């Protein structure tokens, strides 16, 4: 081996520069029920703080087959077209993953839902008192859950 071909680098020296960033890979960490719903080809929208008015659109290309131990997240990879080179490796993005259809409903805290005998109930305020109402739950949003359908006091059997 010729020692003349060896080079020493100082700490922090640039080893290589990525020349083309016309397409970047976005890593999305998915948690809880979102990890179960995300699949290949699901649409994704990303925004970065440096360019708040611009949105990048892509679709999930791959979902990791395992959960990361420390964060309990499942990683998904999304290729994003970046023709103007604004997105750079290492940037953080705010991401919306379309994991299902939209649902209309009222958001209530998860702990406001009472499970009783296979039914889900919430307490509803009437004129001068509260009454239990059977409800059908929709998607969860953080620590809240959507109520997509509920029964009226007249139709509930107690």
How would you characterize the overall build of this protein?
It contains 1 helix and 11 strands; from the N terminus they run E-H-E-E-E-E-E-E-E-E-E-E. With 158 residues, the protein is mainly beta. The strands form 3 sheets. Strands 7-11-10-9-8 form a 5-stranded antiparallel β-sheet, with no helix packed on it. Strand 10 and strand 11 form a beta hairpin. It is elongated. It starts with 22 loop residues before the first strand and ends in an 8-residue tail after the last strand. The C terminus is likely disordered.
Main beta-sheet annotation? 5 strands, antiparallel
- Average pLDDT rating: 81
Kindly, what is the distance between the CA atoms of the first and last residues, rounded to a whole number of angstroms? 87 Å
Number of helices: 1
- Annotation, overall tally of beta strands: 11
Name the helix and strand elements from N-terminus to C-terminus, one letter apiece: EHEEEEEEEEEE
* Radius of gyration based on Cα positions: 24 Å
Structural class: mainly beta
Would you spell out the secondary-structure blueprint of this structure?
Blueprint: E1 23-30, H1 32-37, E2 43-47, E3 56-59, E4 62-63, E5 74-81, E6 94-97, E7 106-109, E8 114-116, E9 119-125, E10 130-141, E11 144-150
Antiparallel strand pairs: 1-5, 2-3, 2-6, 4-5, 7-11, 8-9, 9-10, 10-11
